[in-house]
Amino acid sequence: MSLPPGGTGPKYKRVAETIQSAIQSGDLNPGDKLPPVRDLAFTLGITPGTVARAYAVLTDAGHATAQVGRGTFVADRKARVATAPREFVSIPPEDGNLSLISPQLPDLGQVSLLREAFARIGQAKPERLLHYPTREAYRPLREASVHWLRKIPLGVIDEGDVVLVNGAQNGLSIVLQTVLRGQTPTVLVEDLAYPGFRRAAEILRADVVGVASDDKGLIPEALEAAARKSGAQVLCTSPDVHNPTLLRTPPDRRKALVEVCRAMSLQIIEDDCFRRRDMTAPSYRILAPERTWYVTSISKVLTPALRIGFAIAPRGRGPDLRQVAEYGFFGLSQPLAEMAELILTDPETETIVEAVRAHMAEYVRVAVNALGSYDVTWHEDVPFLWLQLPQGWRAASFCRAAEGHGILIRSADEFALRDGRAPHAVRIAVNAQIPIDRFEAAMHQLHELLGHPPEQISV
Fold it and tell me: What are the respective helix, strand and coil percentages of the chain, to the nearest 5?
């Protein structure tokens, strides 16, 4: 074994990466014994401590196992993964109601990975559990984040552009703190928008102004008029999957909106938590890299429990964003960051994510089969549906009627601005933590309600 010439970074990382590459290529197989620390150190011309640290990195990541008195071996990851559950565990509702308010992910192996990661972190050296983390300590997770996001058309990013946050909502708040200026700044959002945009702006005492949309998303002329009238500083939007309507802004409309943002000096916050696998349109970070702040998380594809998110700054603005995060909460807890690194670098994680997506898609199709005779918008990659109510129903009264049958859904009113108007529509989220036949029964119950509006329309 030899280190690749011209490599950069700490030697222990280069040793670990070289061994990991040999495992992935098949040059090293599960059960193979790695060279003793002193032998490999002599071969490579480095210190035994450097090799020992590399082996610790591989062991922490699950690529190797250390057996007392025998040495270090390549881990049999497939055998470990085979024990992970591949069927969801039904989780009965605490209050008896079926919540379809927020998407609920099935456990298709991620719980086992989390538990193993917790166990490995529990074996960490005491100083890693007692000291304040340093900026350099987060580098492995930032690098893992760049790798995790590699399939998304974001343009060139490096770990210095990434700031680790406690979920996408925290990332949104951190970005707004970075870009907003003045005593009463203004934030622009769609007329119907993710409520977190409004809440993050209001907590910073910013005004929130709605912008009209059509079937392609935000209307450029409406955006320009709103920006000119309000003096807004930032636009918050979700161009790939608009929440709650599932609208997708096509490339030509995105380009037109970018022209308006440049002309009006608007920063862009691109929320991409519900991204689709067929995302082909260029992100705003590609179209306007000098002004786009990208925010996402692992909550909608892996687990919301960890509260792990990523905020990516425009080129050159990473230090500004990082300073706000460090001033606000000093960064993620070090054990959580290390565990997230283990999860994001585990090859099985992406397999699990695809399994989760496929399983959620089955529930989406069940919902469409039950509700498809009504005006419903859906995509199998998105874990919620947007249902325009038929004549005779108002959103609030339909939600109350559904709750009377033990089904909780979200009214369009929750996505409207405080002084805005909402359509007669509801958002129905997928709950894949219950058996699919119970979910299907709930969909048929909603279908039955839709066909029997109240005789007197209530507001």
Answer: 45, 15, 40
Classified as helix, coil or strand, 174 is: helix
Would you mind telling me the total number of residues written for the chain in this entry? 459
Who has greater pLDDT, 175 or 457? 175
**Pick from 339, 334, 449: which is nearest to 403 by CA?**
449
Query: In the chain, what are the domain boundaries?
Result: 1-75, 84-131+347-459, 134-332
Tokens of 311: 């905020």
Residue 347 phi/psi, 5° resolution? Answer: -60, -30
Q: Rounded to 5 degrees, what are φ and ψ at 208?
A: -120, 125
Distance (Å, whole) CA 275 – CA 406: 30
pLDDT band, very low/low/confident/very high, at 83 (cuts 50, 70, 90) = very low
Tens digits of per-residue pLDDT, 70-82?
788 898 765 544 4
| Single pTM value for the model | 0.80
pLDDT in tens, 129-172: 787 777 888 888 898 899 889 888 898 888 889 999 999 999 99
- Rg over CA atoms, the chain: 25
Only one residue has tokens 């359509």, namely 423
Put residue 392 in one of left, alpha, beta given phi > 0 → left and psi -120 to 50 → alpha. left
Strand positions, DSSP E, 381-424? 384-388, 407-408, 410-411
- Pick from 61-65, 85-89, 224-228: least confident: 85-89
In this structure, what token pair is assigned to residue 25? 């290529």
What are the structure tokens assigned to 58, written together?
A: 């591989």
CB burial class (10 A; 0-12, 13-18, 19+) of residue 136? exposed
CB environment 27-51: b (16+ within 10 A), e (fewer):
ebeeeeebbebeebbeebebeeebb
Which span out of 50-54, 305-309, 439-443 was modeled with the highest average pLDDT? 439-443
May I ask the CATH class of domain 1-75? mainly alpha
Strands 234-237 and 375-377, by their bridges, are: unpaired
Does domain 84-131+347-459 correspond to CATH entry 3.40.50.300?
Answer: no
Answer whether residue 431 shows pLDDT above 80: yes
Rounded Cα gap, residues 257 and 251, in angstroms: 10
Fold (topology level) of 134-332: Aspartate Aminotransferase; domain 2 (3.40.640)
